[in-house]
TrEMBL record:
Pfam families given in the database record: SBP_bac_1 (PF01547)
Record's signal peptide: 1-21
Key words of the record: Cell membrane, Lipoprotein, Membrane, Palmitate, Signal, Sugar transport, Transport
Keyword Transport (UniProt): yes
SUPFAM superfamilies for the chain: Periplasmic binding protein-like II
Annotated protein name in UniProt: Multiple sugar transport system substrate-binding protein
Length: 433
């Protein structure tokens, strides 16, 4: 459990998203480096040396034994400060830092070395390559070996038992919750599980491109007709007992879906590793969950689009690095076909960007994490304008007010008014500091 906690906390530290621009360099390096080259490179990696070496460094050192690796830990809110002080050769960044570094001309242009036949882009998720090219005005300044996206998990045995059609790719949230209502609650079965009210409203709001805060005006924007429709959809499913919101945490292995009580849930790729495979390893043959996947529910207007992609480990080369050849060899290696193939033999926390190599021993539809387009609007939001602690506080406010509605202590209008007032009060306090 301690290991699961560590990787989950590391994941949540990767969320930072901001607006964009580009940069350029004229310097060129070799397309293929000498495995015997001697160099020492400094790498900024969240979590520091131990997780980096375990994930990438030990394997890289076996191929390039003469390239020393000096791994620097950092926190995301100290990213710029650490970069200025440490002057790394390689930085692993989120999409926000990627955009910011491009704007400041801090990244080395990898376009020439990547487009040469020495490195194959063909196997990498094309939507991800396209997104990064858009940020770089057609050029690539970094590549992520992994990414995160959500999908809809469903229990095939429950659907078969009650003769209900399986969920399919391209469904809307309304259609998924209507499907959930078809299960017999009188038999102790519910159609959909989510950890808490806020977790569900958050993903539905994301699909509809709604935000609880207008960062330009520093105003909370939750008391709107658009949000009311989202809340009404959730409360309707909850009142019909098709939906359960047991207020579990992200580390709870035996949730209602895993135990076979709920027919569906939605989560990120890491749900495979942290819940399903974990439970299977603990229970062995006793674990009989017959599950499969469909793509994440979407908005009516964009059924083939996912709002849930994000990146935490885009490997980039510092434009000021004196060791660009060795730095590129590392970036190339961690994104290589060779490494992806080797890692495909075991479970992973994030989805590999090379689509050919997916750990899928049970033959499930893991392509559900890959077969939607990216929603660019999500990446363009200026999340840096949101004060530290606001999102956590707002989630608590939404959950507490929703509980009051579900308990009959408040009307939805009263609760939404309180969400708006309490959220704005907290935001104002944070902005004054």
């Amino acid at each position: 459990m301690k290991a699961r906690l560590t990787v989950m906390l590391a994941l949540f530290l990767t969320l930072s998203i901001i607006s964009t621009a580009c940069s350029s360099t004229k310097e060129t390096i070799q397309y293929e480096g000498d495995p015997n080259m001697k160099a020492s490179i400094k790498i900024m990696y969240p979590g520091g040396k131990e997780p980096f070496m375990k994930e990438y460094g030990d394997l890289f050192a076996a191929k390039y034994p003469n390239i020393g690796l000096n791994v620097i830990n950092f926190s995301w809110n100290q990213f710029t400060k650490t970069m200025e002080e440490e002057k790394p050769d390689v930085m692993t960044v989120g999409i926000g830092e990627y955009a910011e570094l491009l704007e400041d001309n801090r990244l080395y242009d990898l376009n020439d070395v990547i487009t040469n036949d020495a490195f194959d882009l063909e196997g990498i998720h094309p939507e991800i390559v396209s997104l990064l090219r858009q940020y770089g005005n057609g050029k690539l300044y970094g590549l992520p070996p992994t990414f995160y996206n959500q999908a809809l998990f469903y229990n095939k045995d429950l659907f078969d038992k009650y003769s209900i059609p399986y969920p399919t790719d391209g469904m809307t949230w309304g259609e998924v919750l209507d499907l959930a209502k078809r299960f017999p609650v009188e038999e102790g079965i519910n159609g959909f599980f989510m950890r808490d009210f806020n977790s569900l409203q958050e993903v539905i709001a994301q699909a509809e491109n709604l935000s609880v805060i207008n960062t330009k005006d520093s105003k909370v924007t939750i008391n709107t007709n658009e949000y009311k429709k989202v809340f009404e959809m959730i409360l309707d499913a909850y009142d019909s007992k098709a939906l359960v919101l047991p207020n579990t945490d992200a580390f709870e292995v035996y949730d209602p879906f895993i135990t076979g009580i709920s027919a569906m849930t939605m989560d990120y790729y890491y749900y495979l590793n942290n819940q399903i495979y974990w439970a299977k390893a603990e229970k062995g043959d006793e674990f009989q969950l017959n599950w499969d996947l469909a793509s994440a529910p979407a908005a009516e207007s964009s059924r083939d689009v996912s709002s849930y992609y994000y990146f935490g480990d885009i490997f980039t080369v510092n434009a000021d690095s004196a060791n660009k050849q060795a730095a590129w060899e590392l970036v190339k290696f961690v994104n290589s076909d060779q490494l992806a193939k080797q890692k495909s033999r075991t479970t992973s926390f994030a989805a590999p960007t090379r689509t050919q190599y997916l750990y899928n021993p049970d033959g499930k539809r893991v392509e559900a994490f890959y077969n939607q387009k990216l929603k660019l609007e999500h990446f363009k939001k200026d999340w840096t304008a949101v004060p530290d602690g606001f999102n956590t506080q707002m989630k608590g406010i939404i959950n507490s007010e929703a509980k009051a509605v579900m308990a009959g202590a408040k009307t939805l209008d009263e609760a939404m008014g309180s969400m708006q007032e309490r959220g704005q009060q907290f935001l104002d306090q944070k902005l004054k500091k």
